[in-house]
Amino acid sequence: MISQWQLRAAFAARLSEMYGREVPAYTTLVDVSREVNEDVLRARGADAERLGSIGRVTAERHGAIRVGTPSEVRQVARVFGALGMHPVGFYDLRDAASSAVPVVSTAFRPVDGEELARNPFRVFTSVLTPADPRFFDAGLRARLEAFLAGRELFPPELLALSDRAGAERELPEADAERFVQLAVHAFELSAEPVDQAWYETLERVSAVAADIGGVRSTHVNHLTPRVLDIDALYRRMTERGIEMIDTIQGPPGWHGPDVLLRQTSFRALAEPRAMRTPDGSVVSGTLRVRFGEVEARGIALTREGRARYDALLARVDEQIAHRTEADRTELARALWAELLPDSERELAAQSLAFFTYRPVPGRPRDGTAPPGTVGGLLEQGWVRAEPIVYEDFLPRSAAGIFQSNLSGDGARREGDGDGRTGEGTSARAAHEEYDAAWLAGALDREVLDPYALYEQQQSRSLARTARELGLARTPSRTPSRTPRTPRTPPRAPSA
């Protein structure tokens, strides 16, 4: 019998092979990532594996797909549920970029620590928002929904095998092989001709909308390896003649601990596609929808830490608006150094990041009672803190990657003061309709809160530590000192 994690590992490996055949530059990206990781491991030794073993980091991938309807995303949940992957987090990309990106998203991934260590494959999954009148008027929405209702992304045999694997958490070897074959095929780029006029109609609204609703299938938009030094990778890819996007998204590279997620990509490639013209003839064309993303993962931040991060981003935005000649990366690096702790111990002591805690082995007991706070235990050497890797995504970074790879900005109509578009339809109501509750209903399953998952992992380790140290209660995570906070609060939520 083939267990879910083995199914997940096999699917991730086979998907990577398929994508490498379709997008050869992806293979170059994987090769350069491996070279960088080997160099970092040689230079930094065990410290390079502080956020995951080199085996895990080398094998790690996340994919990205896009679908059009609640029914389609519900089927996606069944397929990934077979692999032990659950929807975690809600991401609204519609206002996260200046370009028109009319989608909301979640990420399917394992949630158990052992499952993540075995194979941490994730798929960032976006679903179109046709009821949002800022992007689609009533006529285009009706045409789009009719088109989407007439296609089938996943064959019944795949869905049946998915449900069986999800319920039984394993499949016989022959059925497992069939499942992997069907699942990989479902995400291959189709050779079916694209209706040129219909695709261009949607592309005027959004290249992302055209990629979702302008074709009769879905496909992998990118497959992302993990690298330990994303700045070095960016330089090496450029040296090999691969055109990269202009920036690395996320926190700046600085002298302190890596936090959250940094991402970049090579630019979307002009891929040949068969196009059906209005007169019925088929001609050769090109579409730019797929790109090669790479990521460097850091420590998961608590809600307090994330608020600090968001405030820092808002402050960078504010200062750049008044100092247009300033280098954004250098400005961000300076603010990070001023307002974010530059050690893991301080991140833990100020409750800004998540860690697992373990008593220090062999510490002599001199009769002194251990302190009751995490900060005190760390300062006095009773426990050690091991960072919890950030397993999730940043809406602003994801939208930034999308935007950097679009052929145009598209069109997004802004509402007037009462939230209404020129048609008198409430844009605000449509905006609120596509929330986490809507997505959970579309998926027919709970969308898990990533903060709760990290908190559970940390809390279990603190409870275990309390037992081993003989403490009467779990150590408090009250900050050991007043943390520094940015002087300028964020003006709006940022990702």
TrEMBL record:
GO terms for molecular function: dioxygenase activity. Its EC number is 1.13.11.93. CDD domains: VOC_YdcJ_like (cd16348). Residues 486-495 have a biased composition (Pro residues). Keywords: Dioxygenase, Iron, Oxidoreductase. Residues 472-485 have a biased composition (Low complexity). It is an enzyme of class 1 (oxidoreductase). InterPro entries: HGLS, YdcJ_bac-like. Residues 404-428, 457-495 are annotated as: Disordered. Residues 410-421 have a biased composition (Basic and acidic residues). Pfam families: HGLS. Its cofactor is Fe(2+). Belongs to the 2-oxoadipate dioxygenase/decarboxylase family. This is 2-oxoadipate dioxygenase/decarboxylase.
